[in-house]
Amino acid sequence: MGQLFMMGFDGTSVSPQIRSLIENYHLGSVLLSAKNLKSAEDAMRLVLELQTIARDAGHPVPLLIALDQENGGVNSLYDEIYIRQYPSAMGIAATGSKVLAHEVAVATAQELKAVGVNWILGPVLDVLTNVRTQPLGVRTTGDDPQEVSQYGVEFMKGYQKAGLVTCGKHFPSYGNLEFLGSQSDVPIITESLEQLSLTALVPFRNAIVHGLDSMMVGGVSMSSAGVNVMHACLSEQVVDDLLRKDLKFEGVVVSECLEMEALTHNIGVGGGTVMAKNAGCDIILLCRSFQVQQEAINGLKLGVENGIIGRTRIEQSLRRVLNLKAKCTSWEQALNPPGLPSLTQMQPSHTSLSTRAYNRSISVVRDKKNLLPLSNILESNEELLLLTPLVKPLPASAVSRSVSEHSNVSLDPKAWDRAASVLSGESVFKELGRSLSRQRSGRVLHTSYTANGVRPIHESLIDRASAVIIVTADANRNLYQHGFTKHVSMICRSQFTPAGEACEKPLVVVAASSPYDFAMDPSIGTYVCTYDFTETALEALVKVLYGELNPIGSLPGSISRSQKLHQARQHWLVENWNEERDAHALDSLLDAVRGDCAQGQRSELLGVTSSSFLLRREEIDEAHFVVRNSSTQALYGFCSTYFFRSTGTGVIGSLIVHPARRKLSIGNSLHDRAIRTLLQRNVMKRFQLGSRLPGIYLGIPSANSVERKRLRQWFANLGWNTALSRPVCSLVLRNLPTWSPPDGLIHGLQNADVAYDLVYGWGYADSILDHIKTNSRQGVIDIYKVALGGAPHCGIIRAIRPSDGAILGSVVIYNGRSTLAEHMPALRSTQVSTGGISSPVISPSVGAYATVMQGLVLLGIKQVRKNGAEAVIMDCVDSDSNFNCLSGLGFGTLHSFEEVNCDAVSWTMMPSS
């Protein structure tokens, strides 16, 4: 049973209590925190001693050694020499680079692995659905579920690449907690399960799909329609039903620490342990109290003896825990950590990575009057004033370490906080002041501010200085900082010259933690965000303030949306498309958009003509719209829509605005008209952004990350839930005459119990369409119908089980003379003769998914080559499941998109005024 607990202890050496837990109870996992770790060398020594105790006590497998190392302000292991500092999760998101996120995660995990840690409690997967008051702050990526999801997966894969197992947190979400009582009461999630599913659960679901090893379930309560839970980690509805059954999580589930005051008072730790185990938790976490830890073990033992907990559940948990250990450790690894030589070897590259990450994260949100760099506004003989708050030191920072080691602070936590705050105010930001002064010949004045507000000393220094910098750290939760900043801002705007003329004193506000402090307050004209106030972050800030570094960071999530200038929305006259009148003008519009494409970037509109948008099929209703100049006949904008009667789906297939006419609300006007028209259909069931037929835009273009982010935000503002988008792409295989399949592929396919054939025409329609209906996404069935009617230029390759003739998979092939090619312009975007493969559909019952997929595509390539083509385009590829096995055949990405779907009943039109 000891394997089913994770426990912590006090002190920087092995305590008698933790030794007893390992030796006498066979404790399987140990949690280390900042209070245990003085340096990298001491951490390695401590971990090695814990593992040695476990081996000598007869443990069959090593201990899991876990800790939090989220970077930014939350690092359990700190060492100025050997452990590098990296930006917080939100700071990394501000860089806009998933590659950088992956690199930082790998580096973080490598450093932990070197000292013997094998389990990182991360990534944080919470979505800040309420950004203003949540305590998590920059520990999360932000408030965009899709963005949190993508960065979470990159962090997770990076940790795993370096050999650590991962733990997502804090399920089902800490991103929108309500604090209804005192601080000792349990915070509440008031969102329904349906609401959570659309936003907060998206990153957790995605991380599970990509192989998350374990999940921490929070201790928060839940209260909404259909769910009333006192503590999430004690609830079968949350763990067994939601996490295990609905989200299909098969890894290790860890409870929140059960040493919660509310839980201890209302249930008791022994009873809570039994509840957590019955709810489905595999590992129960207890952070520090030996007495409470013993109570938990005895509670579990009693629960099993009394039959409250079934033996099967214990054995299931034990199997999961042992599987987790097998992934990340062995006695050989546990007793021989890489140690300081490994850390020394990594130091140069990790230092460079840290600097690069911080330099890319600093974000200048606004600089209305061009105050930056400061050389724009300050002469060498003028003084600069720096005002910084008194804040608690960062956990595990050098400051907190020096407090514990060098000051005679009483054991009263409030007294410790007071001492730490003073030291922090005098130390953490004092180095910022020194750095500012080193960069310029003029003087830098530096003083702190507190909840006492603007004092006479502040007023005197403001009057004396030629420019002011105010630093805030979570001003939304430390409201005195908000009030102080607004007061100083007012003083700066009320200055006068010696001649009595009104003049505004330059003011720069720096948010050194949460970017939400003044993100949506345009009265703060120059606003910079650093996402944490570690020394490395503040070094990068100084470079930005003095113009040595060009800031490229941007606010993550929806805050960026609110920063865009809200230009007055114009209401353009939207007219129905008239082919005779508008076809030539649309071709000119397409030319303009293609010409505006960035150098080196391939336009999605290559090969597209005005006729590409027209399906002319009886079972599909088309309605296309234009904004035009009735005098010159020029088109300023075009929108294509389709209603697929068979599925009740309304699709926006394209929305195009002339490059010279953007940001004038033309797109908004076209979008509103399209949605209103589609809503008039009687059997409308759902909306889709992106069309597979015609396959011009399969969704929101995503090749350019900056443009993708802008477009996602634009569509989100119009009411689309872009958090639920799905990746889809078009692929290309070039040099077909000289191409050969990978070694061993043909032999592998021959061994499979699958037969393949190529068929043409409606005679095969019934069985193929039955296969498509049960296994495919929207739009694909229509592609197959076009293919069935397009012989001999369109055919369908089938994968069949010989024993019963069941169709296991299918794919469409076509050439440039086919009807389908007219609606797949990617085929005409290459410079050589090209054939097409489209819409692979594999039955979900197939075990060897990748094998069947590769078999279908391999035969498709051979058939296309046989017809004399020099390249092959594969369109409508669901890139979350198919890309890896296709890239192995030699395909590269031609265009990538994000397809967005939503139910018609949930559609909410944005105000048109």
Automatic annotation (TrEMBL):
GO terms for biological process: carbohydrate metabolic process; peptidoglycan turnover. Residues 2-324 form the Glycoside hydrolase family 3 N-terminal domain. Residues 617-689 form the N-acetyltransferase domain. InterPro entries: Acyl_CoA_acyltransferase, GH, Glyco_hydro_3_C_sf, Glyco_hydro_3_N, Glyco_hydro_3_N_sf, GNAT_dom, NagZ_Beta-hexosaminidase. Keywords: Carbohydrate metabolism, Glycoprotein, Glycosidase, Hydrolase. It comes from the Eukaryota. The keyword Glycoprotein applies. The keyword Magnesium does not apply. Coiled coil: none annotated. One of its GO terms (molecular function) is hydrolase activity, hydrolyzing O-glycosyl compounds. Belongs to the glycosyl hydrolase 3 family. This is Beta-N-acetylglucosaminidase. It comes from Aspergillus ibericus CBS 121593. The lineage of its organism: Eukaryota, Fungi, Dikarya, Ascomycota, Pezizomycotina.
